[in-house]
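Cast an eye over this sequence plus tokens and walk me through the fold:

***
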Amino acid sequence: MKNRLWIVSAVAAGVVVSACSGQTTGNPTPTTSSSGSAPTSSASSNADPLAAVDPCSLISKALVTQNVLQQDPTPSVPGGRGCRWTRPDDGSTPNPSYTLDVDIYDTSGLSGMNTQGMQVSSNPIGNRPGRLLQDTTLGSCLLGIAVTSTSRVDIDANAAAGDITTSCKLVSEISQAVAPNLPPYSG
């Protein structure tokens, strides 16, 4: 019986030794932080680059002042986060009144845009893919700017009296100002 116990003990010790004999390269890192939270995984490094971006921060204060924009309460954007500005018709300028929305979609790329009833065309902004959507009935113009294949920023303008030409001109101008404020494109 003693021999059997000794053999079982020797085999068990051999298993433990062989399981611990492998070497791992690299630097050891602690598995908990001082706050006691779990360590972050490599999946978090692949998180959406727009996750921490406030849509209201994408338009500079200079652009807001130059265009006499007033920030409205943040609109409800299904599946996204938005910021809205209006330019009221004060009668002293030749520019019409309009609304301007900047919406961030963290989990919906250009392919996720609702294009029903819209005229759709490709409209890249620098090295970023983009999609221009025009609603000629309502006079609105929207440009989706890709940040990744699964995230985007939409610039949407609605000029007074359904003026599609003015709406699309605004979208073009604003998108050129917003694109440099976006994280680098990674399609």
